[in-house]
Predict the 3D structure of the following.
Amino acid sequence: MVYTRYQAHGPGDQPGSRAGSPLWLSLDSGGPGGMVRAMGGGESHSSVGRKEEIMERFFAVAGAVAAMIGVIVGAFGAHGLQGRVTPADLEIFETGVRYHMYHALGLFVVAWVASRWPSGATTVAGWLMIFGIVVFSGSLYTLVLTGQRWLGAVTPVGGLALVAGWAALGWAVLRS
């Protein structure tokens, strides 16, 4: 979203009159469905779409942080666990990293969808992906590192959250 401020002046404008007050144009050049919204006088760009902009940025930053952690955990698994855990456990750990990274990128998709079609469903999708990464991948990491096999029963809860996140994201796009 791009905000541009224009000062509207006309003949006979007096200092302090509403006629000379700033006009904000909100430009969304996201393709054929792009929009222009004019806001006059007392409105400012910060009062329009501020919540949506915060969510866009939040999920983009969450995606970046999740991807960074995924790279670190993946490197730890590749270099620190080889020879210390069984090949089967290493494969489990790699599955956790793979889904971690898929859904870190998914958070960038959530941020993009939030910028195009903001809705509550988009926000729900982002939180479900974050929860799913923590529970699905986190349970697999912990299972391998601690040997606590009962954590395998927790993993599907995270998987369901990931699936629900993608479903909510699709719903958000369809509803818009």
Summary: The longest helix spans residues 50-80. The chain has two domains: 2-47, 50-175. The radius of gyration is 23 Å.
